[in-house]
Amino acid sequence: MRVAARRTPAGAKEAASGRTAPPTVSGRWIAGAFGIVVLAAAVCAYGSLCLLFWQGWWQLLYRPAAKVTRTPASVGLAFDPVGFAATDTGQPRLKGWWVPAAADAPFRRYTVLYLHGQKGNLSGCVDALAALHAAGVNALAFDYRGYGESEFVHPSEKRWREDTDWVLAYLEQTRQIAPGNIVLDGTELGANLAIETAAAHPELAGVVLNDPEARPMEVVFGDPRAQLVPARLLARDRYDLNAPAKRLRIPSLWFVDAEQNSARGAQMAAAPEAYGEVGARKMLVWLTDSSSRQREFEDALSRWLGELPR
Predict the structure, then answer these.
(1) pLDDT (mean) for 249-262
(2) What CATH number does the domain containing 160 carry?
C-alpha cells in the first residue's frame, strides 16, 4: 500500500532545522545606499579641496624669503638692527633696521616707516632705504612675520596690519617720536598696506605710495584652482585701494611707474582711480625708467616733505 508524501512548508522545515530565512533587500534600497555613499564621498572630497585651498592660497599672493642676503652696509649706510613686538618670553616677533639721518639732513625731524612688498624680505629694501637717506630722513624698515628673521607665521592682511601697528607703537613709545613726525612709505602691496594704515591713523604726518597694486587679489581669484572652490569666501584678504583712499585725511605722495603702467594698459586704471578718491592734500608723480629715476624720486619726495604742515 503506497502512502502519499506530504509536502512540508519551507518555514516549517527551517523551523525544524533551527535556521532563520535570510532577510531580503530590495534593489531600490541598495541603489539608495550606494547613492548616499557616493554623495558623502563627494562632499568629503570637496571639503578636503576647500581645506587645502584655504590653507595654501596665501602662497599665490605672498612670496616670502627667509634668508637676508643684503644689508644697508652694502651701500655704505650705517644702521642698527632692531627687534620689537616681544613675546611673553622676551623674543621679538619682528626684526628690522634703523637707518638714522645725517646730523645735517634737512628733514631729520621726520622718520619714514618703510613697508616692503609681498616678495622677498628686507634684502630688497636696501636701495629704497638709500634713497630715503639721501632725501634726509630717518628710516625704519622691518620684515613682516613670515619674512626674513621675523617670527614664522603665514602672512595675511590682518597680520600685516597688526605688525605695522606694533612698529608704530615702537616708534612712538620706545623711540619717543611724535606721530606727527612719522611718514608711512609702502611699495607695491606694501603701498596698499600703507594707505590702509594711514587711513586708520590720521595723526601721522603723511603717506608715500610706490606703485600700489590695483587689484592684488586677482592673482589668487584668477588662478585655475580658485575656480573649483568658493575662493572669495576662503581667502579673506582684499587690500582694497579705493575704500581707504576715500577715508584718507593726511597728505599723500603717489609714485607710479610710467613704463609699467603703459605695458599693463587699462588693468592699472584703478591706481589713478584710487588717487582720484583722495580728498586730502595729494601729489602724483609719474616716474620714467631712466638713469634719472632716483633723482626724480628724491626731488619729488624732498619737495613734498618741505610742504608738509609742521
Answers:
(1) 84
(2) 3.40.50.1820
| One-letter identity of residue 72 | P
Grid coordinates representing 293 are: 629715476
Q: Nearest CA to 277 among 242, 302, 236?
A: 242
Return phi, psi of residue 85, to 5°.
60, 60
Mean pLDDT score, 188-193? 97
Domain that holds residue 260: 59-306
User: Among 233, 237, 247, 198, which residue's Cα sits nearest to residue 216?
Assistant: 237
Radius of gyration of the chain (CA): 32
Joined grid coordinates for residue 220: 589668487
Q: What are the grid coordinates assigned to 308, written together?
A: 608738509
Query: pLDDT tens across 64-77, in order?
Result: 999 999 999 999 99
Cβ-in-10-Å burial (0-12, 13-18, 19+) of 122 comes to buried
Cell of 32: 539608495
Three-state SS at 97: strand
Question: Long-range contacts for 32-36 (Cβ within 8 Å, ≥24 apart)?
Answer: none
